[in-house]
Design a protein that fits this description.
elongated; 4-stranded antiparallel sheet; alpha+beta
Length: 95
């Protein structure tokens, strides 16, 4: 998913607009996780970038995307760019 989201909507509170963006991002992640990974891989990992524009987007972990959207909104930007790419990966052993 590579998308620019407006941070303001007429008649809507800015916090609700950010909630809707996070909701759409979470739905995309859940949908991607339901797809079976290619043969030889166990799970999906997500490469994420968030910023004011595609040129200024910074890499983030999937858990940091919601906070990064709020950070961009606090700068007064009219929109936020979110890029999330699902990449097949192996499970890491925790030991």
């Amino acid at each position: 998913m590579k998308k620019n989201f407006p941070l303001q909507a007429p008649g809507k509170d800015d916090a609700r607009v950010r909630d809707k963006i996070r909701h759409e991002v979470n739905n995309y992640v859940r949908r991607s996780q339901r797809k079976p990974p290619p043969e030889g891989f166990a799970i999906w990992e997500f490469m994420c970038k968030v910023g004011v524009s595609p040129d200024q987007a910074e890499s983030k972990a999937i858990k940091e995307v919601g906070g990064a959207i709020d950070t961009v909104a606090q700068t007064g930007a009219p929109a936020v760019y979110v890029e999330i790419v699902a990449v097949p990966a192996q499970r890491r052993s925790s030991g």
